[in-house]
Design a protein that fits this description.
The complex is a heterotrimer of chains A (189), B (207) and C (381). With 189 residues, chain A is α+β, with helices and mostly antiparallel strands. Chain A folds into two domains: 157 residues, Beta Polymerase, domain 2 (2-Layer Sandwich), CATH 3.30.460.80; 31 residues, no CATH class. Chain A contains six helices and five strands; from the N terminus they run H-E-E-H-E-E-E-H-H-H-H. Chain A has a five-stranded mixed sheet, covered by helices on one side. The two termini of chain A are 48 Å apart. Chain B is α/β, with parallel strands linked by helices. Chain B has a single domain, classed as Rossmann fold, CATH 3.40.50. In chain B, the strands form two sheets. A three-stranded parallel sheet of chain B has the order 3-4-5. The two termini of chain B are 31 Å apart. By secondary structure, chain C is an alpha+beta fold. Chain C has a single domain, classed as Cytochrome-c3 Hydrogenase, chain B. In chain C, strand 7 and strand 8 form a beta hairpin. The longest helix of chain C has 29 residues. Classes of the chains: A alpha+beta (189), B alpha/beta (207), C alpha+beta (381). The interface between A and C is large, with 34 and 38 residues.
């Protein structure tokens, strides 16, 4: 494992190397080196199983992060290759000619995050949503609770028959009203 | 979209308001007669509910043991049918996403009157634990008329049998009027459905 | 390998030779809630497209709005026949990131729970497979015997289908008195059911002639599609997470990985039946070797305001259908930053089925679909 990390560091300028468990390492490469690194790991080092391809949204840093998780059948080790891409115009090279199963992952990421993979067949077909005209839902600036309350009719909540609350309303009505108002505002957040 | 897809679309998606190809009639109400024959019809319908075997969500896993010998619903006269033309009870089992709602409406409108709906699980009542999801609906009775709700997550098969019991009592009293309600408030239901189903590519009334 | 997902340009849709039909979610042959769009010539399928998304609830978005302990009731609803694998994976990821150790007895009880869930889901899968070829009685038997196992679950955890028993820190309750005796009676009943299924299904001339040679997966398709689980083991690749990356106490149990040679439908169903026997064997070993007393749960102080240090991890487990994985990222606050759930049917149902479906008759496609054991909720979550 250590020799492999040295080779990756020298060939592809891998940074931020973190050993999570005994046979599992996270590395970060630049966007232009990613396709070469993944191809090298697949053809020359035996990491033939693409386990996972996912995306994260770091809205504070204005970047998307892509994670490619590779697994070796023979010596049972994992390498997870990460890269950062720009959030304003997100595109990435498609690896569907290395693994046929990568097409489904890229289609889903295009629909849920908006990251484009030119070259992947059928990448614009909707995957799980039908007739969706808003921004891609997994981005951090999409508020799912607000969307659900506006589009689908929520049933109004129940009121409580708690003894303490009832006595408060009878004896100290002003305080009870202020307390309820504060609780409503906090719950709405 | 390739050119072949565009050609396909012209064949598959015609104009639905064309009276030459599609009948554009709306559903009509059937008033109840107030005599002994109507009571006989009610008794007969309550004792032979045939349900549509369409598992729309999580709850269909608790519908499957009902057909076995331990809970045995065929002693009540209930039998699962594969097509909506031969059934008069539709169990909506669990949460409903927008894509499934379109198919539920299509199947519901193809069933023949009189027809009844049971809403299974807490997700049909107020959204359940997916109340803040962007793809599931919160109140089922704004889209199709519901007769009985069975609460739980999942309700046991015994709870479902109690729900059938309640439905039979309702039908025998003469209150199982879901189909007539749908016909009377057809415009309101259709407006609610079109609000969330944005690519509407079927006729307004799929019968 | 010929590329998959051709366009329909080479098929002239205007000539009367081809029929395009859509077998949607309301169909007696489709298990789960997905639909397939077929281009038929006579009775033979030329092109197949899978459409999923009928059960999309947006789990990953919902989990970012809930605290760690609030996530665990929602996590078990991702996979309906076998919810314990999801609970275990979520708990394992959270424990690895926060550095909590769980007691020894809790690990044995978790393994018992996982094996019982595997047995129930695989037995029901055998029933569904028989039903797709027309042998309906076996489906009734299988569901009825799974009900006895659900009684054992209700005794142990309190719920029939959704257990919510495995939590970060251990398990929730101790095993009740006399549980082992009652579970042993259920296991004897299930063994009798498996020998009945052997007589009725595997020596049945109709089943054999329909399923042998159908849906053959050669060995060099395993890597491009990422096939795992029983489907890969039936084609000759012996990859089992319980042996390759042992988790919980699987390294203290004694078992062999079951592999087959021909990769067709008959072999996959046969391996599933053998795995039912393996699960029963493992449950008996666990009940014999478990430590007799000890705590079952580690106390976590102030669980409603639990902050987990920043980090990321990937954990995996073997469910009845294949390799399940959770990728979790935390950033030091009370809410997870990102949770990605990867189910085994993800590539099986979408890319592999579209490749295997060409040339199959319309009547056999459902048997093929059920033999890949695809289950739509874990595809679109």
């Amino acid at each position: 494992m250590k020799e492999l990390i040295e080779r990756l560091r020298s060939k592809f300028n891998a940074k931020n190397i973190k050993e999570q468990r005994k046979n599992f390492v996270f590395i970060t490469v630049e966007k232009k080196d990613l396709e070469g690194c993944v191809l090298y790991l697949k053809e020359f080092e035996g990491y033939g199983h693409l386990t996972l391809l996912t995306a994260l949204d770091w809205i504070e840093k204005d970047q998307f992060e892509l994670v490619y998780h590779l697994h070796n059948y023979f010596n049972k080790t994992d390498v997870s290759v990460k890269t950062f891409i720009d959030r304003k115009n997100p595109t990435m090279v498609s690896i569907n000619n290395l693994w046929a199963g990568a097409r489904v992952y890229e289609r889903e990421i295009k629909e849920l995050f908006g990251i484009d993979f030119p070259g992947c067949p059928r990448v614009n077909d909707p995957f799980a949503l039908e007739g969706w005209h808003e921004i891609p839902p997994m981005r951090k600036d999409f508020d799912t609770k607000k969307y659900s309350e506006e589009t689908y009719f929520p049933r109004p909540g129940r009121y409580t028959k708690d003894n303490v609350a009832q006595m408060e309303e009878q004896l100290y009505p002003v305080e009870a009203e202020v307390k309820n108002g504060i609780a409503e505002t906090v719950r709405k957040k | 979209m390739t050119e072949a897809d565009n050609e396909e679309n012209k064949i598959i998606k015609p104009d639905f308001s064309d009276p030459e190809l599609f009948c554009t009639a709306l559903p009509k109400e059937v008033p109840r007669m107030n005599n002994i024959i109507q009571k006989f019809y009610d008794w007969a319908q309550a004792n032979s509910l045939w349900l549509l075997a369409f598992g729309t969500g999580c709850g269909s896993i608790e519908m499957r043991p009902l057909y076995t010998a331990r809970y045995d619903i065929s002693r009540f006269g209930i039998a699962p049918r594969p097509t909506p033309r031969q059934s008069n009870l539709f169990i909506i089992s669990g949460y409903v996403s927008v894509k499934t709602l379109k198919r539920i409406i299509r199947s519901y409108e193809q069933m023949q009157n009189p027809k009844f709906v049971i809403g299974l699980g807490s997700c049909t009542i107020n959204g359940g634990m997916y109340w803040d999801s962007y793809n599931t609906i919160n109140r089922l009775d704004h889209y199709i008329p519901v007769d009985v709700y069975v609460a739980g997550c999942m309700p046991r098969p015994e709870a479902l049998i109690a729900g059938f019991d309640e439905l039979k009592k309702r039908i025998k009293e003469g209150r199982g009027e879901g189909a007539n309600e749908y016909a009377k408030n057809f415009a309101w239901y259709k407006a609610n459905q079109k609000k969330i189903i944005k690519d509407w590519d079927m006729p307004d009334y799929n019968w | 390998m010929k590329p998959i997902w051709n366009d329909t340009k080479e098929y002239d849709l205007k000539s009367g030779k081809y029929v395009k039909i859509w077998q949607g979610p309301q169909h007696p042959g489709i298990t789960g809630n997905m639909s397939i769009e077929l281009l038929l010539e006579g009775d033979e399928i030329k092109l197949l497209k899978t459409h999923v998304g009928y059960l999309h609830r947006g789990f990953e978005k919902l989990m970012e709005r809930r605290k760690f302990i609030n996530c665990f009731p929602i996590v078990c609803r991702i996979c309906v026949p076998e919810p314990d694998t999801n609970e275990y994976l979520f708990a394992a990821a959270v424990e690895e990131l926060s550095g909590i150790e769980i007691p020894e007895r809790a690990k044995w009880i978790r393994t018992l729970n996982l094996e019982m869930a595997r047995l129930g889901a695989t037995v029901m899968g055998l029933g569904g497979q028989a039903g797709s070829f027309g042998l309906g009685t076996i489906g009734q038997w299988a569901v009825a015997h799974r009900d006895f196992l659900l009684d054992s679950f209700e005794e142990l955890t309190g719920g029939r289908i959704y257990h919510m028993y495995i939590v970060p820190g251990g398990v929730r309750y101790e095993i009740p008195e006399g549980f082992e005796g009652r579970l042993e009676k259920t296991l004897v009943k299930i063994e009798k059911l498996l020998s009945d299924i052997d007589k009725v299904m595997f020596h049945n001339a109709v089943f054999k002639s329909r399923s042998k040679g159908l849906g053959y997966i050669p060995k060099d398709w395993i890597e491009p599609f990422g096939i795992n689980g029983t489907t890969a083991r039936a084609s000759g690749v012996s990859y089992d997470v319980r042996k390759d990356h042992p988790y919980l106490i699987y390294d203290q149990l004694d078992f062999n990985v079951i592999t087959g040679t021909e990769g067709d439908v008959y072999e996959r169903v046969l391996i599933r039946k053998e795995e039912c026997h393996l699960s029963i064997n493992l449950i008996r070993q666990i009940l014999a070797k478990m430590p007799k007393s000890g705590p079952v749960r580690t106390f976590i102080p102030d669980i409603m305001h639990w902050k987990i240090p920043a980090g990321e991890t990937y954990v995996r487990a073997e469910s009845g259908r294949g390799e399940y994985g959770y990728y979790m990222v935390t950033d030091g606050s009370e809410y997870p930053q990102r949770v990605h759930v990867k189910g085994p049917s993800y590539t099986h149902a979408m890319s592999l089925l579209e490749k295997l479906g060409e040339g199959v008759t319309n009547a056999d496609i459902f048997g093929l679909m059920v033999s890949l054991q695809t289950y739509p909720p874990e595809i679109e979550r």
